[in-house]
Specification:
Radius of gyration: 33 Å
Helix content: 40-55%
Mean pLDDT: 82
Strand content: 5-15%
Distance between the termini: 119 Å
Number of strands: 23
Oligomer: single chain
Largest sheet: 7 strands, parallel
Structural class: alpha/beta
Strand order of the largest sheet: 7-8-5-9-10-2-11
């Protein structure tokens, strides 16, 4: 008070006041420290309790894997086979993800058709067999049993019926399943375990032991002696309703003589079942579906190329939205993301599924947990296809082009970014389609006008007009020029200028394309090469177009192709050549990959055999982005030989792209990658040989598939599910009706089928018979020596392109007759009309000649393939009569089964059938 009265100093600044303030501060600090210590201790205790609780509920990964390896798995043919390393690693990664409630991004490469539904089924099998033993006392007597399984409630997004394909090709031993299930069922006796759904689950699976292999038609089938993997865990919609083929033992109960019995059905419905796989489709409401699904143990995201195609171009946004909803409703569920290429791998682990919050001091987040699995096959069971060595690709080169098309594509992508920000999906799609069309046209091996003439001559004006729509820019330009659409307003003058440039560029591409000029120069270089060269195109029709173009430009090229010094082929060409005898295969010194897709070019470097030199011909965008992917993948893959190939390719293409003026490859960025350079497949499968407009024909419209045009008597392949075993059978086009399921042997199927079943090898016997007949008929030709006989044949053929040297090659087959059956190479013309002239000159009937052409000569060629006619009969015969094919080709049984499995992906339902008269 005196201080205030005297105003000599500030109040509360005396010595006693300062000492009191110091004591108060010390006391306050002690209180804060005590509170902080208490809070830290509480957090530590809670985290320790959470860790203890999590450990108590964790699934023992080692025991699960041991139980899975102990489960006898079989092929459909019956032989035991262990689980493949790919699926073993996926099961292990899924269990770890469930235990830690975290995200795991898994990349399988180079194979893409891995089944996540099979992973769920394998975990269910492991869960049943991994439980500790226990005893259940009943009437004073202990009965052996097992502790209650943990169960598995999973969700798969995006879901489709084909996701179960591989799980339906594996059998689980019935005795093993019955023994486990009966012991588990003992636990539910005498009121010990009152869970009705789990009791129903074990009782139903125990009935698998009664399978005899007898189908409902009274015949015995080896694949019916055991249950398939897909019927071990029920699956259905998110609301719990099981699919038609989604109940426990669905196949065994509908296809075999297994008797029906009374059951509760609780194990089949997602609301009550402890084991259930929910399928979330692309068009389902994700929020409502996740609410209906209830508690989940794991959520699978299929973001492979197949999964991305189901979701569309905005797959990152859709996947991110679903993942956020999963974390909102299922924070403790494990999340497993499956991808199959480097860009998606980085996009998922760094952005979409990264749960770390960005910090100012650390703007770059660490990636989510990830694993890279080298996969050589998508089958659940191990196979013998794993290569033991890699040869070739000693030298890798890249030759590219930039130019106006890519410059315009870069400008359009900038506009596309603005449209994406404005959420104009329609405008963005139009811009992306325009960019894809410009790049596709620039990568054609000939001008647009010559390509149009080629397609018209092959398919006719009507079909060609429909097919060529994918190469025109007018539709995209018109939609973006519409002043009513948002893109027109957002793009402004920049978009208008780009559209004008696109039209001008399209007119220039009518006369020439960068790829045709690049190929022109490249082919000229190979003229005097002593080694053989293979030019690989994305599709066989493109290879045919290139043959037509460049044989007209270079008079010497046709002879080179006749002698197979230069081969133009589609995707099956490399498989055909790698299947040749080593002495002949190693004569191919160079492989030219012409306009490959960005996400497909790297898979070539995982092939066990490649020519010594690999040259990639592509635009600068493909080189730039595939270079980044290759260098990323080289550091992740666990096979050194493949890694060195990828590193070699990545460095070479980076240099080439930089020399072309493209910006330096940013290895750390995850920018939006442009669409791949893809060439559309045919929208019409023409089985009339181009003569459908001249005669009465049948036009069949398929759901989500191409149209089929055939004569009333044309043979088609019907997928028949009415008998005990699903089978393919032959049916004439006039007998097809709405609702039937047809296998469409399109160009896409045939090119993939050539990778699965190498018909050239299986057709070698037919070639041997053809050669023997040619030698016999040639000996009967009048003349004192071979030269005189050849002159007679040339005169009978009466074709200006056939001289004595060409005819001599066709009859010089003595070495082929002495060669091993697998080493036989056909000596025959490579055009059907010329082949028929040659055989007619020898005195061979047309019917027999055509059989030799389809099964022998054509099958062993890599330069010509007509999707509608050429291999249709060959593959049709294998599908509808597989047992005869297997009997003739004992070593090809597994490949024939794979072919039939592939064919199921090309089955479509008939929507309408129309008979059209000319």
């Amino acid at each position: 008070m005196r201080d205030r009265q005297n105003f000599q100093r500030a109040p509360r600044t005396g010595l006693a006041d300062l000492q009191q303030q110091r004591r108060d501060a010390v006391s306050k600090r002690a209180e804060i420290l005590s509170a902080m210590s208490t809070k830290a201790a509480a957090i530590k205790d809670s985290s320790e309790l959470a860790a203890i609780e999590q450990a108590a509920h964790a699934r023992p990964v080692t025991r699960y894997l041991a139980a899975l390896s102990a489960a006898p798995l079989k092929r459909l043919s019956g032989e035991d086979q262990p689980i493949s390393k790919v699926y073993a690693k996926l099961v292990e990664a899924t269990l770890a993800s469930m235990n830690d409630s975290c995200v795991t991004v898994a990349m399988t490469w180079p194979v893409r058709d891995v089944s996540l539904s099979a992973v769920a089924s394998l975990i269910a099998v492991a869960d049943i067999g991994a439980q500790p033993e226990m005893a259940v006392t009943k009437g004073g007597i202990p009965y052996p049993s097992y502790e209650r399984p943990r169960g598995l409630r999973a969700l798969l997004y995006p879901y489709a019926r084909s996701t179960h394909k591989h799980a339906r090709q594996v059998l689980l031993d019935k005795t093993h399943l019955r023994t486990l299930s009966i012991r588990h069922a003992v636990r539910h006796t005498h009121g010990n375990d009152t869970d009705g759904a789990m009791k129903d689950f074990h009782q139903v699976l125990a009935r698998a032991g009664k399978l005899t292999g007898m189908g409902r038609d009274g015949k015995e089938y080896p694949e019916f002696r055991h249950p398939i993997l897909d019927e071990i865990i029920p699956h259905g919609a998110c609301n719990g309703t099981p699919h038609g083929n989604g109940q426990l033992l669905w196949r065994s109960s509908t296809k075999t003589d297994l008797k029906q019995h009374k059951r509760s059905g609780l194990a089949d419905h997602g609301k009550t079942a402890e084991f259930f796989l929910h399928g979330l489709r692309r068009d389902d409401n994700p929020r409502r579906s996740l609410r209906e699904a209830g508690a989940l143990d794991v959520v699978f995201f299929d973001l492979t190329k197949t999964g991305q195609q189901r979701l569309g171009d905005d797959w990152p946004e859709l996947a991110s939205e679903v993942f956020k909803l999963v974390r909102e409703r299922q924070p403790k569920a494990g999340v497993v993301v499956l991808v199959d290429e480097p860009f998606s791998f980085d996009k998922c682990r760094f952005e979409i599924f990264n749960e770390q919050k960005p910090e100012k001091k650390r703007p770059r987040r660490h990636p989510a947990r990830s694993v890279v699995i080298t996969a050589y096959g998508g089958a659940v069971l191990a196979n013998d296809d794993v290569p033991s060595s890699w040869t070739g690709a000693v030298k890798v080169q890249a030759v590219g082009f930039g130019g106006a098309a890519l410059d315009l594509a870069g400008r359009l992508r900038g506009i596309g970014s603005e449209l994406r920000s404005a959420e104009d999906k329609a405008g963005l799609r139009a811009v992306r389609d325009l960019v894809a069309t410009l790049r596709r046209n620039a990568s054609l091996p000939g001008s647009l006008s010559s390509f149009s003439d080629h397609v018209t001559s092959e398919q006719g004006p009507a079909l060609a007009n429909d097919f060529l729509a994918s190469y025109r820019v007018s539709g995209h330009v018109a939609s973006l020029k519409d002043p009513r659409v948002p893109a027109f307003q957002i793009g402004g003058s920049e978009l208008a200028d780009c559209l004008g440039t696109a039209q001008e560029l399209f007119r220039k591409q009518q006369a020439e394309t960068p790829m045709s000029l690049l190929l022109d120069k490249t082919i000229e270089v190979t003229r005097n090469s002593s080694g053989r060269s293979l030019f690989m195109f994305q599709t066989q029709p493109l290879a045919e177009f290139a043959i037509e173009q460049f044989t007209a430009r270079f008079s010497w090229l046709r002879k080179k192709m006749e002698s197979r010094m230069i081969v133009f082929a589609g995707q099956g060409g490399l498989s055909d050549i790698s299947g040749m005898p080593p002495a002949l295969r190693n004569q191919f010194k160079k492989l030219y990959l012409v306009a490959p897709a960005r996400n497909g070019v790297l898979s070539y470097f995982a092939r066990p055999w490649l020519p010594e030199q690999v040259i990639v011909l592509a635009d600068a965008d493909t080189l730039r982005f595939s270079s980044r992917d290759a260098l990323r993948l080289a550091g992740e893959i666990d096979e050194p030989a493949i890694g060195s190939r990828l590193r070699r390719y990545g460095l070479e293409t980076a240099k080439t792209a930089q020399a072309l003026g493209s910006h330096t490859v940013n290895l750390d960025g995850i920018q939006v990658v442009p669409d791949d350079v893809d060439f559309p497949r045919e929208s019409v499968v023409d089985l009339t040989g181009g003569r459908g407009l001249e005669r009465e024909r049948i036009e069949i419209k398929l759901a989500d598939g191409p149209r089929v045009m055939a004569f009333p008597g044309s043979a088609l392949v019907l997928h028949d599910q009415s008998s005990a075993v699903d089978e393919f059978r032959e049916v004439v086009a006039s007998a097809v009706s709405e609702g039937d399921r047809l296998c469409v042997l399109s160009a896409g199927f045939i090119e993939k089928a050539r990778l699965v079943l190498n018909i050239p090898t299986t057709a070698a016997g037919e070639i041997r018979d053809y050669h023997a007949l040619v030698m016999k008929k040639f000996a009967e030709i009048p003349g004192d020596n071979d030269s005189e006989k050849l002159r007679v044949i040339v005169d009978r053929i009466n074709d200006p392109d056939v001289d004595l040297n060409r005819a001599r090659y066709w009859v010089s087959i003595k070495k082929e007759m002495e060669a091993r059956i697998g080493d036989v190479v056909p000596h025959a013309p490579q055009k059907v009309d010329l082949f028929l002239k040659f055989t007619a000159a020898l005195g061979i009937g047309e019917r027999m000649s055509r059989e030799f052409w389809h099964w022998g000569v054509l099958a062993q060629r890599t330069t010509k393939l007509k999707a509608g006619m050429a291999f249709h009969d060959a593959y049709k015969g294998i599908l509808v009569d597989p047992f005869a094919a297997m009997a003739d080709n004992q070593k090809r049984k597994q490949e024939i089964r794979r072919l039939r499995l592939l064919a199921e992906d090309y089955v479509a339902t008939v929507e309408s059938v129309e008979r059209v008269k000319p």
